[in-house]
Amino acid sequence: MAGEGSSKKETVNPKAIIHQRFGDKARYNIEEVQDNSSNGCPGLVIPQKGPCLYRCNLELPEFSIVSDVFKRKKDAMQSAAEKALEKLSDPPVEDASDQLVSRLSYLFSNEFYSICHPLSGHIRAALQRAGSLNGFVPISVMPIFDSKISNLCKSIKPETDSKPLEVMSIIRDASTRLSEPVLVSNEFMSLKRTTPYPLEVLESIEVDFDQKTYVKVLRIPYLVEKVVEPLTLDVSANTYYMDAIARELGAADASMVSLSRCIGKSSSETRLYSHAPNSYKWNKEDFEDKSYLNARASYLSGQDVYGDAILATIGYLWKSCDLFFEDVSPRTYYRLLMNKVPTGIYKLSREAVLAAELPPKFGTRSNWRGLFPRDILCTFCRQHRLPEPVFSLIVTKDAPEETSRCEVKIFSKSQNLILHCYPRESFKKQSDAIQNACSRILSLLNDYFKKLNMPREGLTLTPCRNGLDLDFYPEHISKELNLFSLVCKNILAIDDDTKQSNGVDDVPSYNIQGPDSEVFASNGCIVCVCYSAFLVNEGEKELLEKNDEFEFELGTEAVIPELEVVVGQMAVGQSARFKAKLPSLELIFAANGDPARVSSLLSSRGCSLEYSTTLLRVTEPLEDRMEKALFSPSLSKQRVNYAVQHIKESGATFLVDFGCGSGSLLDSLLDYPTSLERIIGVDISVKALARAAKTLHSKLSTNSTNPVQSSRLKSALLLDGSITTFDSRLYDCDIGTCLEVIEHMPEDQATQFGNVVLSSFCPKILIVSTPNYEYNVILQKSTTQTQEDDEDKNSAKPCKFRNFDHKFEWTREQFQVWASDLAGKHNYSVGFSGVGGAEGVEPGFASQIAVFKRGFELADCGDLAVVPYDVVWDWRSTDE
Ligand code: SAH
Ligand code: MG
Question: CA-CA distance, 474 to 476, in Å (whole number)?
Fold first, then answer.
C-alpha cells in the first residue's frame, strides 16, 4: 500500500519523500505498545483499555529513528518519516545564528523584563548585584532557563548537547552581533544590557527588598567519604541567589557556577550547582579532570558534575515573578537516591520507607497496593533518562479463550537493547500479562543493584542471560551502574549476611496484647495496620516512621519479614511490639530521622529498631468473601458438613485432614458428637498450623459446655510437612479429607499427592474437594457489582481463578478424569458429588467432590516408621 499514490493531499507526505530518497533502504518496523496514557501520573490506577497503540521504528542507512505512539500504524509510520526528515534537514546553521541573535535581543528587551519567565527573574535580580557586576547576567543560566536558546545552540553545534561549555561561546559570539548593544564581560562570561531600563519598566514589577529570606540547601562533597551537609543560603530579594551559591562554592562569581538539569520531577527546580573549573572560560579541553568527578551529584543528575556540589530547590517560574524556593534536607537527598531503584520507588509510593518492600511477584490488581510494577518500571526508566519501555503483547486466540503474553524491551538512549524480557506465561487479562512481565524485570533489577553493592562483584558488568525469559545487557548502562555502586552502597538495605546473624530467622520476640477477637488474617487477606517505627537506645527514642492506616496483602512479602510474621499471629484489635533488623543509615535518613539525633543514638552500642503496631482490619480474599456471601450456609461450612456426614456414616475413629490450613475442618468437627478418637492435621504452612493449634487448644481445654466432652477424642496432632511425601503416622486412617488443597499445588504435584495418598497412606475413605471452574461464571456474575476496583470495564472478563494462589481450577471433566485415573490405578472406587448448587443442574456444584473408597484389605505391615513431618502440636486427652 505504500507509495501507491493515493491522490489526496499527498504533497507533504513525509513517507513519500523518504521513499523517493531511500527506496527499499528505508525499513519500517511496527511495534505494538500498550496505552501509556497513565505515564504522566504514575500514581493513578488506570486500566489498560481501548485498542492497542503503535510505534514505528524507521531504519535508514545512516541512522534509525523511533516515532511517537499512535492509534493507527499509518500515523506511526508517517511520524517516523517526519522525524527522519527533520533530522536530515536541521535548519541551516546561518539561519539559527540569526535566530539566536534575535532571541538574545528579545531577552534584553523592555518587554521581557516584566513578564514572568524562568529567565526574566535572573535579569531583574542581576540589577540587584553589587559593584561592577551590577546588571550582568551569567551566560550559563541562559540555555538552562530558555529552551529556545538551548535548541538554537544545538542546531548551530549539535555537540553542545554533551558539552555545555560550547554553548557559552556560541552565546557570547552571538551577543556581539546585537543591534541594541549588550556588554560582554569576558572575565565573567556574563552579559549586560548597555542602556538602562526605563523607570516605568523597572517599576512594573514590585519587589519587597526588605524581606529577609533563607533557604536550606545541601552540600554534596565530591569525596564520597564526606557526608552531605546542610547549609542555609540568604536569598533575600535584594540579592541574586546565584551569587549566594557561588559564594558557598568558592566561585568568584555566579557565572562560574554550572547548573545541572532538574533532578527528580522535571518541574521541581531541584538542581545541582557546582563550581566550573577555571579553564571553563576559554579552554574546554582540560576541564574534565576525572579525579574531581562528583559521583553522587553525577548519579543524581545523569550529567557529569565535578567538584563539590550544592543541591537546592530554587528558581523563577512561569506562574509568578517571585523567586520560588523550598528547603532541601538530607531526607530529600536520600529520597532522590531511593527513587532511582525499583524497591525505592515502590517504598516511596507507599510512603513507607522502612516497612514496605517491593513484592517479588505480582498477584492481583485489586490486592496490590502502591505503584504498579509497570509504573515503577516507567519511573525507573525516566529516572535513568532511558526511553519508555516498549511493551509488545502477543495474543493467542487458542480455544477456549484468548490469552496474552507480554514482552518488554528497554533501550538505551542510543537505541541499544538493555533488557529484553519474554515470559512464556499467558494471562487472560492483558494488563496482568504486562504487570507480571514488569514485576519480573523489577526483581532482576533489584537483585542486580543489590549485587552491585557487594564490593567483589561490584564492577563485573558482563551481559547476563537470566533464567529462560530475560536477557540483560548491563554494559549499555555501565556508567550509571558504576556510579550507583559508588554512591548508593546501602540504599537497598539488608544484606543477607547480617540478616542471619541478627536472628530474624529465629522466632522474633513480640508481645501481643489486647483481647483475642478471634479474627485472624491468613495469606491472601488484605490487612490494615497502624504502626510506628522507632530507633531505640537505652530508653531514648526517635520516631522514624509512622502510618495510621497501612494496608498490604499478607503472604506476598510486601512488608519487612518481621512485620509480616507478627501480623500473621495477631487478632484484629490486638497490638504488638517487636524489634526488627536495623536498616541502613541511608534508609533511616530517607525515612524521617533527624541526622544529629540518629547519629548520636547509633554511635553507642545496643541501638535497635522497634515497631509497635495494631491490626485494625482484615479483608478476606475474594474467594472467602464469595463463599460467605453467595451461599447459605457458607460454602466452607457446607464442605465441613459434607465431611461430617461421611464421618458419621462410616463410624470412623481415625481421621487425617490433608492440607488442614488453620484447622477449620478439625475445629468444626469438635462441635459435633462423632465416633472420632484420633485426628491428625497436616499442612506446609507453619503459620496456619500455629493458628490451628491455638483454636483447637482453646476448644479442647474448655470443659463442660462443649460437645467434645461427650466425644471420645483421645488425641489430636498437628504436623508440618508436604502431603506429597509419605509419613507413616498417617497410614491407614478411616477417613482422609483434602478440602480445597490440590488447586494450591502445581498439577503434577496434585497428581503426585493422588498417587502417594492412594498407594501409601491408604485411607479407607478419601474425600477430595476442589473448585469447579465451570461454576466461576456464576460467582463472577454476582460479584462484579460488589467488586469495587476490578477495572476492565470494557471487557467483563473475570480474573482467571477464584484465588490468586490457585495454580489451577478444573472443569468437572478434568477433575473426573484425574480422579478416575487415580482410582483405577490404585484399586479404589470413586464417586462424584459436590456442594453449592445442585446435582444435575448446569454448571454443576460450586465445589466438586470426589469420594474414594479403598477396594482392598490392607495387609498388616508391622512397624512402619517413616516420620519426615515435624510435630507442631500434640494434644492427648487426660480423661483416661
Ligand atoms: N483444607 C483447609 C485449607 C485450604 S487452603 C480448608 O478447607 O480450610 C489450602 C491449604 O493447602 C493451605 O493451608 C496450604 O498451606 C496447604 N498446602 C498446599 N500445598 C500443600 C502441600 N504440598 N502439603 C501440605 N499442605 C499444602
Ligand atoms: Mg483454594
Answer: 5
